[in-house]
């Protein structure tokens, strides 16, 4: 039996109005007015029409006849306006003068039509919006393939997905899962799809289409939660790449056994960066630049192109750090490396510039394109 070490102050503080329940998938919102505000506007418009019609009848009360007492007071005027606009028309109060009848033809009848349009239009709009949302959700589920699921949209999860999106991943290919309604609302405001719920439950992950995901990022606040999420996600998707973060380093092996391919110890990594910055502030700045994707120096993984086959790592125009061969990661100076092979992948450091473009023939990842003198001003090797 394994035991997960929990940090002493690792509880998630949540607002009282936030419920840890499974809810529907939330797609990125369009700029539309809140439904309650739309309904409130229509109710106010309907009341204004009713009040205007009531006063209009009262001001012309001498042209109307009440079958009960013959006179029309303010209450009778509003009663007539109500039954007239609602097309009930009991007939106990009727216009008898020409002016009253003309007013009914040219004023009250258009107001009646407008009143009905407001009431019916509100109902139709609610039904149409619900149908449109269901259609969007079904289309989203059908089109979603090879996407990225982010479990936890706190500082770690947000930074991780921003780094991935900097390499070209579209926001439409990202689904955020978090138990906090406010966090998911923030994610949808940023353009990501979101699912509110506990990611340790399989039905929540199924709503996020984890079974069709290409990669899963686990950035929960608790290590025990990360282990349960990894177990559930791996059970639903055997082929996805799962990357998880833990706070305590001794929990990393357990998370790997739970199905995570890569485990990052966030507290230790931050501590090492702090220590390096103390020893060498310049080295700390370079390392921080490397992990900030999209500008300055980027560390990327790319395939070996045909022109590089048979060369050594030092003969490549980019600065090669390591070579991925099969399931092994070999250093650039590893004696067992030898010459580059077509099936190898290179982990290189390149400089990201605004004019960088991806060329189909080299099949490079964003940020790894050749420049006139290589990534660091080194002349290109001769073919």
Spell out the key features of this protein:
383 residues; alpha/beta; seven-stranded mixed β-sheet; four-stranded antiparallel β-sheet; elongated
The total of beta strands comes to 13
Please state the overall shape, judged from the principal axes of the Cα atoms.
elongated
How far the N terminus sits from the C terminus, by CA atoms, comes to 58 Å
Class computed from helices, strands and strand pairing: alpha/beta
Percent strand: 15-25%
Summarize model confidence as the mean pLDDT. 76
What's the Cα radius of gyration?
A: 33 Å
Weakly predicted, low-confidence segments: 7-22, 355-383
Give the count of helical stretches.
10
Biggest beta-sheet profile: 7 strands, mixed
Helix-strand string: EHEHEHEHEHEHEHEHEHHEEEE
Widest sheet: strand ordering: 1-6-5-4-7-8-9
Give the fraction of residues assigned to helices.
40-55%
Task: Tell me what you see in this structure.
The chain has 383 residues and is α/β, with parallel strands linked by helices. The protein contains ten helices and 13 strands. The chain has helices spanning 35-59, 74-85, 98-143, 155-165, 181-189, 202-207, 223-236, 252-257, 266-279, 281-291; strands at 25-26, 64-66, 93-95, 148-151, 174-178, 193-196, 215-218, 241-246, 262-265, 296-303, 319-325, 328-331, 345-352. Strands 1-6-5-4-7-8-9 form a seven-stranded mixed beta sheet, with helices on both faces. A four-stranded antiparallel beta sheet has the order 10-13-11-12, covered by helices on one side. It has a two-stranded antiparallel ribbon with strand order 2-3. It starts with 24 loop residues before the first strand and ends in a 31-residue tail after the last strand. Mean pLDDT is 76; it is low at 7-22 and 355-383.
């Amino acid at each position: 039996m394994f035991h997960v070490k929990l940090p002493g102050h690792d509880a998630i503080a949540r607002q009282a109005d936030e419920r840890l329940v499974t809810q529907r998938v939330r797609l990125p919102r369009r700029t539309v007015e809140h439904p309650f505000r739309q309904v409130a506007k229509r109710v106010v418009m309907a009341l204004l029409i009713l009040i205007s019609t009531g006063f209009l009848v009262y001001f012309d009360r001498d042209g109307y006849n009440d079958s009960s007492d013959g006179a029309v007071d303010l209450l009778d005027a509003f009663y007539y306006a109500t039954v007239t606009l609602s097309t009930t028309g009991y007939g106990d109060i009727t216009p008898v003068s020409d002016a009253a009848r003309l007013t009914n033809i040219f004023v009250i009848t258009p107001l009646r039509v407008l009143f009905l349009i407001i009431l019916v239009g509100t109902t139709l709009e609610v039904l149409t919006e619900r149908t449109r949302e269901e259609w969007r959700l079904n289309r989203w589920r059908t089109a979603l393939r090879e996407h990225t699921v982010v479990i936890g949209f706190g500082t770690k999860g947000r930074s991780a997905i921003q780094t991935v999106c900097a390499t070209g991943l579209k926001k439409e290919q990202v689904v955020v899962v978090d138990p906090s309604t406010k966090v998911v609302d923030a994610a949808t405001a940023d353009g990501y799809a979101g699912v509110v719920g506990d990611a340790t439950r399989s039905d929540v992950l199924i709503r996020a289409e984890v079974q069709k995901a290409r990669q899963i990022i686990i950035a929960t606040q608790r290590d025990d939660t990360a282990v349960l999420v990894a177990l559930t996600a791996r059970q639903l998707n055997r082929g996805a790449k799962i990357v998880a973060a833990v706070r305590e380093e001794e929990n990393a092996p357990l998370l790997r056994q739970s199905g995570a391919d890569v485990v990052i110890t966030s507290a230790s990594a931050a501590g090492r960066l702090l220590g390096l910055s103390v020893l060498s502030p310049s080295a700390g700045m370079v390392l921080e630049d490397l992990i900030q994707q999209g500008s300055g120096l980027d560390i990327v993984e790319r395939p070996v192109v045909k022109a590089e086959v048979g060369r050594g790592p030092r003969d490549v125009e980019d600065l090669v750090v390591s070579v991925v061969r099969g399931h092994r990661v070999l250093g650039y100076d590893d004696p067992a490396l030898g010459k580059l092979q077509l099936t190898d992948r290179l982990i290189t450091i390149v400089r990201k510039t605004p004019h960088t473009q991806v060329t189909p023939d080299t099949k490079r990842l964003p940020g790894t394109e050749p420049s006139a003198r290589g990534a660091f001003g080194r002349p290109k090797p001769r073919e």
